[in-house]
Amino acid sequence: MKSYDIIKRPLNTEKTNIQKQDHNQVSFEVNRKANRIEIGKSVEEIFKVKVAGVRTMNMIGKIKRRGKTISKPHQWKKAVVTLMPGERIDFFEGV
What we know:
The protein contains three helices and six strands. The chain is α+β, with helices and mostly antiparallel strands. β4 and β5 form a beta hairpin. The relative contact order is 0.24.
């Protein structure tokens, strides 16, 4: 897989902003078949930074029910990438 196939999009929530400021961690939605090594190399290649560690988790969609209809949102994989001290990734520069 190519780097841009592994990293789908950055996650921007209140929790991820706090992690970014306090612990120098950035969160991404990634391909479900990618492992930690591939994710780390992809982040280093795309953003030109050094990665200290990668943690991953599978986000399971909760079952929702509306009357007779039962639906389940898609499942996806989340990666929390810890950057080396002094490294930064800015997604919204100048906004």
